[in-house]
Write a structure and sequence with these properties.
The protein has 28 helices and 17 strands. The protein is an alpha/beta fold. A hairpin with a 3-residue loop joins β12 and β13. α7 packs parallel to α13, α20 packs across α25 and α23 packs across α24.
Length: about 775
């Protein structure tokens, strides 16, 4: 084959690869994103063929949903009849239970072990004290120079036997194969270790610092793998799949899934319609405070409890608060993404001292430098072979005391760490510059600042301003948890949202920004309105206000709000944990218990995304199952705000939803497996036991209440938008990507049309709509 044909074939085969995100920025994403141009059913069937993965919930999960009444009998019976299946639901449930999935034998197990060994060594990001030689030359070259010493796994070979480039190796190995066979070969071998190839894909596409220093791509991977396969006498071409005799089983599985989803949708529509027919509320007095939370499903609970504690109004907005930024940490100097991965970072935010806080700022930096140096020395002593044994002996007492403290006094340890972590906001203020310097100038223009603030108000449909407006980002707190970043803000690329919240508050407080908003956009912010950044800790439901620079005029208002937030924390943790009396204490213990398998549930149970005014959901308990984005259709006369929501937040919530779906239906392949046997590799990922594929999804304990009983219900995302149906149709028509997701049933969409008596319509293929209102 010609080199260009090989490259083209690899590009075609690479659609099987999703992205495996590193533990430190664990972004939820659809592992089958490469298949989104196919229908959901076609995609899961193709993935089952390529990966040998489960595509649908197991019979055990369907049975649990059936027994709990989550699958409506009438809905299921109707869908079965539409497919000419006339037996009872119980009959088909028994059919699924008896149809055991055939165990797949991995005939390339030895080859997978060899590849995992090379990949873990090369892609290590600082965990190993002694790094693999020749890494800076790239994966293929480093492997080529070292494999000649690896007679144990691939047999004896000499350097001159191995071509100098990966493309030459592939040309040599694939000589005589047709282009279609090459696509099959590449697809098969990329799919063999989807976790590792997904991480190669992530590093390549993100062009991270690690990738720039130590390059690796799919061509290098395939060259090494196919060369090793020849040495091990493994087959290059996959075996032809046997004729599928389980067509009925797959058909019934899909019907049960759709019945489950439709049952949930029917209940959601009924709930929202009940809210919409209530007497419209009159214009309220200005609230004492307004709080903006992330659209995250965990915000649904805290918003209800905050609103019940005073004259407070809440909003939902994507947790990066509309600032496409990276954040440079003062603690370690590392710059991390703090906005959705689909958004390019336009700004970099760092920390600067507050007015008259230069001395404290310098002292913090010096203390932090000393602490960082100590950590570095301790890590070197711990990992270096000559000092490891002496280190263990000498540090035993110190670590013993620490372990006893975390075991017996986790709440006290949490409070100490939380106080230390929040100190930076008391002496610093966020400082924003352009990510790309133009003409030696990285300053932000007034128009850019105004645009960020105006966009936030437009998307949320802001009508009036309270004396206090709080932008509350969110983060999580847990101990001994490799997956801790998966509990932080999904909209902030698995980073806490506090920095984005602080930055937006600072911009909204600028006199020149307010003046421009009033003069050019008719947005009049009262002089006495103060914007504050905050953080909602989703493990403890504590909300910290960053009010160090607040003027005296607002001190009493802030004090009153803090009391209200403490009350909200108490009742929210009682609601969430089912623990009366000492719920806050229990939540704080869970946050710092180093043996806790699930400090919190994250976004488990997510199933819906509601875009509309708060009145639509305010008086109902949605059980933390819905993302909530504020939207006022009457204020969005051109539909631009809604289009932004559908293009951005709706896409991100679909990623999150698919991530949870696939991690649940096949936890071993798409998920993370059980935490019990996890081992961290290279600082960026985990493997099960002592090797194998890199885990690319959520661990079992984040999805199941036990090994047998599910907590998350694997349903595709159901979106409800309150807006004129004509407006939504126009947006879909001019956005091909959104239309594809809807037509291929990766997302369900329903519209509550306020111009048609709030009737609810469900999207059908090709921008057609079906009336699904439950009203008589």
């Amino acid at each position: 084959m010609m080199k260009q044909q090989i490259i083209n074939s690899i590009d075609t085969a690479s659609k099987v690869i999703g992205k495996t995100w590193p533990l430190y920025t664990f972004v939820a994403s659809n592992p089958l994103s490469g298949y989104e141009n196919s229908t959901f059913l076609e995609a899961v069937n193709s993935a089952e063929e390529n990966f040998g993965a489960n595509a649908f919930p197991s019979a055990k999960l369907y049975k649990q949903a059936w027994q709990k009444g989550d699958i409506n009998k009438d809905v299921l019976t109707s869908l079965l009849k539409e497919s000419n299946l006339t037996e009872s639901p119980e009959f088909y449930l028994n059919l699924l239970t008896s149809a055991n999935k055939k165990e797949i034998i991995n005939e390339n197990h030895s080859l997978d072990i060899v590849m995992a060994k090379w990949l873990s060594s090369f892609m290590d990001e600082g965990l190993a004290e002694w790094e693999m030689p020749y890494k800076s030359e790239g994966f293929y070259t480093a492997w080529r120079l070292l494999v000649v010493y690896d007679a144990e796994t691939t047999g004896r070979t000499s350097l001159k036997e191995i071509p100098k480039t990966s493309l030459e190796t592939l040309e040599q190995i694939l000589k005589g194969y047709s282009e279609s066979d090459c696509v099959k070969i590449f697809t098969h071998h990329l799919a063999a270790l989807p976790g590792w190839t997904g991480y190669i894909n992530h590093r390549t596409q993100s062009n991270s610092d690690w990738h720039q220093q130590y390059p690796i791509d799919a061509i290098d991977y395939l060259a090494v793998r196919l060369w090793s396969a020849q040495k091990l006498k493994s087959s290059l071409l996959p075996k032809e799949a046997s004729e599928n005799k389980n067509t009925l089983v797959k058909k019934v599985q899909y019907i049960f899934l759709k019945a489950w989803e439709q049952s949930w949708q029917n209940q959601l529509v009924k709930t929202l319609e009940h809210e919409s027919i209530k007497t419209p509320s009159v214009e309220k007095n200005i609230p004492d405070a307004q709080l903006v939370f992330c659209i995250d499903t965990r915000s649904e609970l805290i918003r209800r409890h905050v609103e019940s504690k005073g004259n407070y109004e809440t909003f939902g907005y994507a947790g990066f608060f509309g600032i496409a930024m990276d954040y440079k940490s003062l603690d370690d100097g590392i710059t991390r993404k703090s906005c959705p991965p689909i958004v390019g970072s336009a700004y970099v935010v760092s920390e600067a001292p507050q007015i008259n806080k230069d001395v404290q700022f310098d002292a913090y930096n010096k203390k932090n430098d000393v602490a960082s140096f100590k950590k570095y020395i301790l890590r070197r002593m711990k990992n270096m072979i000559p000092s490891a044994f002496g280190y263990v002996e000498g540090s035993g007492l110190f670590y013993g005391i620490s372990l006893i403290g975390r075991t017996l006094l986790p709440r006290k340890m949490y409070q100490m760490e939380d106080k230390k972590a929040s100190k930076i906001e008391g002496i610093c203020q966020p400082d924003m510059n352009k990510a790309i310097i133009e003409n030696n100038d990285n300053t932000i223009t007034l128009d850019q600042k105004v645009g960020i603030v105006k966009s936030a108000f437009d998307l949320m449909g802001w009508k009036q301003f309270a004396p206090l407006v709080v932008f509350a980002g969110h983060g999580s707190h847990s101990a001994n948890n490799p997956f801790s970043s998966s509990l932080d803000c999904g909209a902030c690329a698995a980073s806490p949202g506090r920095h984005n919240a602080r930055m937006l508050a600072k911009l909204a407080n600028l006199p020149e920004v307010r003046k421009s908003l009033a003069e050019n956009h008719q947005i009049h912010i009262p002089q006495n309105t103060l914007f504050l950044g905050a953080e909602h800790n989703t493990t403890t439901d504590d909300i910290i206000l960053f009010d160090a620079e607040a003027p005296d005029y607002h001190k009493q208002l802030i004090k009153d709000l803090k009391l209200g937030l403490l009350k909200a924390q108490k009742t929210a943790t009682e609601d969430r944990l089912g623990n009366k009396g000492n719920s806050v204490s229990s939540a704080e213990k869970k946050a710092n218990n180093w043996g806790e398998t699930r400090p919190e549930w994250g976004l488990a149970k997510n199933a819906g995304f509601i875009v509309g005014p708060r009145e639509l959901t305010k008086h109902t308990n949605l059980d933390s199952r819905c993302f909530l984005h504020s939207y006022e259709w009457e204020l969005d006369t051109e539909g631009k705000a809604l289009e932004g929501i559908m293009q951005g937040p709706m896409t991100v919530t679909q990623w999150i939803n698919n991530h949870y779906y696939f991690s649940t239906v096949d936890n071993n392949l798409y998920g993370g497996g059980t935490k019990i046997t996890h081992n961290i590799t290279g600082k960026f990922g985990v493997v099960q036991g002592n090797g194998g594929d890199l885990k690319m999804g959520l661990p079992l304990q984040s999805l199941f209440g036990s090994d047998e009983n599910m907590y998350h219900q694997p349903l595709r995302l159901s979106v409800v938008i309150k807006a004129p149906i004509a407006r939504v149709s126009e947006i879909i028509a001019r956005n091909a990507g959104t239309k594809t997701l809807l037509d291929n049933e990766w997302i369900y969409l329903m519209v509550m049309d306020p111009t048609s008596k709030n009737e609810v319509f469900k999207y059908k293929k090709a921008i057609q709509w079906e009336l699904v209102s439950t009203k008589n």
